[in-house]
Write a structure and sequence with these properties.
The complex is a heterodimer.
Chain A (H helix, E strand, L loop, with lengths): L20 H10 L4 E5 L2 E6 L2 E6 L6 H7 L5 H11 L5 H7 L5 H21 L7 E4 L13 H18 L26 H9 L6 H8 L3 H13 L60 H8 L9 H9 L2 H6 L8 H16 L1
Antiparallel strand pairs in A: 1-2, 1-4, 2-3
Helix pairs in contact in A: 5-6, 6-9, 8-9
Chain B lengths: L3 H9 L4 E8 L4 E7 L6 H16 L2 H4 L10 E5 L3 E9 L5 E9 L5 H17 L1
Antiparallel strand pairs in B: 1-2, 1-5, 3-4, 4-5
The chains are: A alpha+beta, B alpha+beta.
């Protein structure tokens, strides 16, 4: 367990540097590495090439879930961490002291691991990645997941979000419920999603809501997208429907720029194993192609309830189709131009 | 004290069991699976089972008159040659979990399997 003999070179620098967090993880797994892969949105801890832990600020951890539901007081948790953390046997202590059953520990651990790993692996903003050899997680061994399995699951979750409502800005922006007058009248959102609306105060992001309510980060993210698909959320930032003015249309019809990752540091820092940049415009979609289709057929939201009313609610406001185009570009002017173009294309 | 593996092994020991999976229906994640699989891989089966469960949980028809915290106990699909027992597991924290048992109709006994599945689910979270 302790000695990983030849395997792990301090800085893993293959001849072809990995382009995505997933590739970096695959590489480390292939070398049966032990240590932590740190990225801008969290860390993955490997033990002999398998992922044993994951942390992300976007996903509540085991501690959040357990203190959130009142199973353990924050003071007891802090004490547990102080005593057993340095020996990486917090998990063991939880079971020994009967604070959790083995089953609960495994379930909670796996759910939070996959949850955090999704945000770490789906990160396309670039930034610094580094590998810290031999780093161990304070929780200690519970279960480990095959790296390939983790990547598949992260991919599946990403596609699921796209299918629900392809609008990634929703994932990080403060959640704002739509004004009551703007909400479709006859839709019920379900208890859990209502609870999200009740706690959305215009400042809390999906990650804040997840932590507040002790729910999985991915679950809340998906529910937020479902709420948006149902027309129950105010559009974030520069996406207010109906504001696309016909004033400056053909000015730059080809305005969609190569998706500029916000604040991408100029790629390769020497020790970074995975300078992650979106591989050739991952953010870009063909404007006007998928979404209006999805709206017309109502097939874009499998998880939301009846497609009929949803489609109706959305088609009340034709410009919303254009506004709903998922813009991953940070510059509002470009966003506006892209929206104008999408609108024009939709009318062809 | 049983963990995920013991729980699934217990489910597979039920007469007529063809597969058993523990699924987080909040995300569609298969936390663990044993046995053969109707779709060829357990991850797809978990995602599809999640769609069914979500439809049931989110409908007023099935849940409107029930206890708000855990409105549904199980969902049973009876097919020509098999049963699918989908049992909801209540955890203290946010886990939205189901235990899915695929059961052969000729060899299995639905009532007995349902009873056993409930016991396994309780053991898993109560220890």
């Amino acid at each position: 367990m302790t000695a990983a003999p030849a395997a792990v070179p301090a800085a893993v620098l293959p001849s072809v540097p990995p382009q995505t967090p997933g590739e970096a993880l695959g590489l480390l797994a292939a070398r049966r590495a032990t240590g932590a892969l740190h990225g801008p949105l969290g860390s993955l801890y490997l033990v002999d090439g398998r992922v044993a832990h994951a942390d992300s600020p976007r996903a509540p951890g085991l501690a959040d879930l357990l203190t959130g539901c009142g199973r353990i007081t924050p003071e007891d948790w802090a004490e547990l961490l102080r005593v057993h953390g340095p020996h990486t046997r917090v998990a063991e202590a939880l079971v020994e002291r009967r604070l959790l059953t083995r089953g609960e520990l495994e379930l909670g651990h796996l759910s939070t691991l996959f949850d955090a790993a999704f945000f770490v692996l789906a990160d396309r903003t670039g930034g610094l990645w580094r590998f810290e050899p031999e780093a161990r997680h304070w929780l200690g061994p519970v279960r480990a997941v095959d790296a390939e399995r983790l990547r598949r699951e992260a991919g599946r979750r990403g596609r699921l979000l796209e299918r629900i409502w392809p609008w990634p800005q929703l994932d990080t922006a403060p959640v704002r419920p739509a004004a009551p007058s703007a909400q479709p009248s006859h839709r019920t959102a379900g208890r859990r999603r209502h609870e999200l609306l009740d706690h959305a105060d215009g400042r809390r992001t999906p990650a804040d809501l997840a932590r507040l309510l002790g729910r999985s980060g991915f679950g809340v993210t998906a529910d937020i997208r479902r709420l948006a698909a149902a027309g129950l959320l105010d559009a974030p930032r520069h996406a207010a429907p109906g504001t696309a003015p016909p004033a400056e249309p053909p000015a730059a019809p080809s305005a969609a720029p190569p998706a500029e990752p916000p604040a991408a540091p100029s790629a390769a820092e020497p020790e970074a194993p995975a300078p992650v940049r979106p591989a050739g415009g991952l953010h870009r979609r063909v404007p006007g192609a998928t979404l209006p289709g999805a709206i017309r057929t109502g097939s874009g939201a499998p998880g939301s309830t009846a497609p009929g009313p949803a489609a109706a609610a959305r088609s009340d406001r034709p410009p919303a189709a254009a506004a709903a185009h998922p813009l991953a570009v940070p510059d509002p002017d470009i966003a506006l131009l892209t929206r104008v173009r999408t609108l024009l294309e939709a009318r062809l | 004290m049983p963990g995920i593996d013991e729980c699934l092994a217990g489910a597979m020991s039920i007469a007529g069991a063809r597969s058993a999976s523990l699924v987080d229906w909040g995300s569609g994640l298969a936390l663990g699976s044993l046995g053969e699989c109707p779709t060829g891989d357990h991850e797809t089966a978990a995602a599809e089972t999640t769609d069914l469960v979500r439809a049931a949980v989110e409908s007023q028809t099935f849940t409107g008159a029930e206890d708000r915290r855990s409105p549904l106990q199980d969902v049973i699909v009876t097919a020509g040659r098999s049963y699918h027992l989908i049992f909801f597991i209540d955890t203290v924290f946010d886990g939205r979990l189901i235990l899915h048992l695929w059961l052969d109709r000729a060899q299995g006994n639905l009532a007995a399997a349902r009873y056993r599945l409930q016991a396994l689910a309780e053991e898993l979270v109560l220890g």
